[in-house]
Design goal:
By secondary structure, the protein is α/β, with parallel strands linked by helices. The chain is built from ten helices and 13 strands. It has two domains: 186 residues, Type I PLP-dependent aspartate aminotransferase-like (Major domain) (Aspartate Aminotransferase, domain 2, 3-Layer(aba) Sandwich); 103 residues, Aspartate Aminotransferase, domain 1 (Alpha-Beta Complex). A seven-stranded mixed beta sheet has the order 1-9-8-7-6-2-3, with helices on both faces.
Length: 299
């Protein structure tokens, strides 16, 4: 099914398949629209926060089990934005098992899947359960977000009918540019070659940046991503409240990052940086951060 964006697609699915007051599970820290669309539709936001284990984020399956008992639907971000995890098949099988046990609808946002690094392996959730609804788009991987070209894969006919009714209410219509771009992204061999080069460069860029943080700014904790172009950085050692940290970054460092607060309570000390740019730009950003951090007192 065509959708005019992944977030609109997720919103229309939640609107179609749940009622006001129904529980929807998310795993914070997660892309802010996950929070916003659930509360905006007056559904109950049920958070099963990810855990930090040995410098890596993992799912908390006990928390997930608890929240799914009260839920109608689960929004999975796979690969995860902002922490960069590519969930293993074993982890995803546990998600499917819990959803089946508690009769929860599984919806997977897989927009970053095409940007999985060569060293990793993405498992599409609908390979593990035929009832999974998948929402995705070529917009991240092929840099065509402005075309609003995305799609929903919904195998269940009854659910698909209800989603279509909501989409019709909101006048969701494809454009010839969007359709053409989706087809080209997924069928043109040149696009495939370009994507292979891109993911290799992104993995190299991520490794370079995390190594520099570990060597030159170890006070700021980073998490090596496994997909995409986003780095999640913990500024807790700076001991600044979010607004003070934002002011320092903007006015002194001259870096404009994505503040972590909107990603969830556990993101309050974090900033998200987009490293999908040239090495020269990254080096300049790191230089500014290092120069201004040298004079700060870390806790």
């Amino acid at each position: 099914m065509f959708s005019n964006g992944v977030v609109p697609g997720l919103t229309h699915i939640v609107e179609a398949l749940t009622e006001e007051g129904d529980g929807v599970v998310i795993q914070s820290p997660v892309y802010p629209p996950f929070h916003e669309l659930v509360t905006g539709l007056k559904r109950e936001l049920l958070d099963a926060p990810l855990r930090q284990v040995d410098g890596r984020y993992e799912m908390d399956f006990d928390a997930l089990d608890t929240q799914m008992r009260k839920a109608k639907l689960f929004l999975l971000c796979s690969p995860h934005n902002p922490v960069g995890r590519v969930w293993t098949e074993s982890e995803l099988k546990q998600v499917v098992e819990l959803a089946r046990r508690h009769d929860v609808i599984l919806v997977a946002d897989e927009i970053h899947a095409d940007l999985t690094y060569p060293s990793q392996r993405h498992t599409a959730l609908n390979r593990l359960d035929d009832n999974v609804i998948t929402v995705s788009a070529p917009s991240k991987a092929f840099n065509i977000a402005g075309l609003f070209a995305s799609y929903i894969i919904c195998p269940d006919g009854a659910m698909r009918k209800r989603i279509t009714q909501v989409q019709n209410k909101h006048h969701v219509l494809p454009t010839p540019f969007a359709n053409t771009a989706i087809i080209a992204a997924y069928t043109d061999s040149r696009a495939e070659r370009w994507l292979d080069q891109l993911t290799a460069e992104l993995e190299e860029q991520a490794t370079y940046l995390v190594n520099r943080f570990n060597e030159e700014l170890p006070q700021l904790k980073t998490f090596l991503p496994e997909a995409s172009y986003l780095l999640w950085i913990d500024f807790a050692a700076l001991d600044l409240e979010p607004e003070a940290r934002k002011k320092w970054l903007h006015e002194e460092v001259r870096l404009f990052l994505s503040p972590g607060g909107p990603f969830g309570e556990s993101g309050q000390t974090f900033e998200r940086i987009n490293f999908g740019t040239s090495r020269a730009v990254l080096d300049e950003a790191f230089k500014r951060l290092t120069e201004h951090a040298d004079g700060k007192a870390f806790v």
